[in-house]
Amino acid sequence: MESTLRRTWAEIDLDALKNNYEKIREHVGSEVRFLGVVKADAYGHGAVQVASMLQILGADYLAVSSIDEGMELRLNGITMPILVLGHTPKEEVPKLIRNNLTQTVTCMAKAYEYSREAVNFGGNLKVHIKVDTGMSRLGYLCDGEHFENGVSGICEACELPGIKAEGIFTHFAVSDEPGDECREYTLHQFRLFMDVIDAVEDKWGKRFSLHHCANTGAVANYPQTWLDMVRPGLLLYGYGEYAEKLGLQPVMSLITTVSTVKIYTPGTHISYGGTYRTDKMTRVAVLPYGYADGFLRVLSSRAMLMTEDGPVRQIGKICMDMCMIDISEAPSVDVGSEVEVFGKRNSINTLAQMAGTIPYELTCAVSKRVPRVYYRRGEIVEKELMLRG
Q: Catalytic pick from 242, 272, 344, 375?
């Protein structure tokens, strides 16, 4: 299926991705390996295209959420190591082994299941052990009274037949949050993780090849946590408060166009519910961009979008397929004019703040009907529309 691309589209700047990768590499040093997080279709940027670029650039590992995401990459020419962060049903173990996908192991029940299936298949499943140090989500419990049992369980998992334990990792809960309390909690998680590693490797008698725990916040703020490998997510795509400090650039720009312009008298209600009413003669543009495209409805009458004449306010409730903006002070804007929802001129961080969320949610929300257009050196190198043809 083709698209005119003149409705609403996302521009993915692969040069910005390259810049961010190189800047983060420089920041952490050449001895630290680089895992690029490309789960959730690389947070809406396109997992295949992002992974392909990272493979060319020399990244060491990729991380996905599920075996399906891993298989998408394998079927599109990605050969580098891939870590599946989420649960994989035991029946899929042969597929993991055949496609050289590394599986996360979070508890003994899964370790036993994976071991049995690997042995039955006649192969070895490469795994990374996850330790729950305070995220309270997935992983072996090891804090406080759980320490000894957790260490014993990890050692037992590493010795199971059919299991090849390559790595061990944990995930920080508040490494990107300010304040002494968050800093102390992060350092507590890190100390516990290091204690677990020491105890497991002493009891097991072997050393993991990879130890990793540094997510975006830790990459930016806690160099002691970098260990063998870092796992930047948000940082890689150039968003969040730390990106600017490291000289990173936003990878995605979301662009829409003006489809209709109308002038309304004072007292005119705009959009559903009549919640917005004009207080003067108002020049209004309709944009083909609504919540079905990923424009969160909570941003109604709050979001600022960028035009060639500067910022303008979105007015009225955001509709499924469209929204309205006040262009009374933007005389150059007319039918066909481009409007940047977020990108290099209109920070996604500001939009996320207005919505009370994080930039991740906004990029992940960009729907499949919004075409992605990939640029290198200012030229279009690929277009992708995820609707069925």
A: 272
Q: What is the rounded average pLDDT for all residues in the chain?
A: 96
Report the percent of the chain where pLDDT is more than 90: 96
CA distance to 47, 53, 57, 131, per residue, from 386 (Å): 13, 20, 26, 36
State yes or no: is 39 an active-site residue: yes
3-state secondary structure of 177: coil
Q: Is the dihedral of CA 178, 180, 181, 184 positive or negative?
A: positive
- The whole-angstrom separation of Cα 184 and Cα 322 is 46
**pTM value > 0.90:** yes
Q: What does the pLDDT read at residue 365? A: 97
Would the CA dihedral through 30, 32, 33, 37 be positive or negative? Answer: negative
DSSP helix/strand/coil, 251:
coil
Q: CA gyration radius for the chain?
A: 24
Hunting for tokens 């703040």 — which residue is that?
353
Give the confidence band of 196 by pLDDT, cuts at 50, 70, 90.
very high
Name the catalytic one among 23, 39, 110, 317. Answer: 39
What span, in angstroms and rounded, lies between the C-alpha atoms of 240 and 161? 43
Q: Are strands 210-214 and 101-105 parallel, antiparallel or unpaired?
A: unpaired
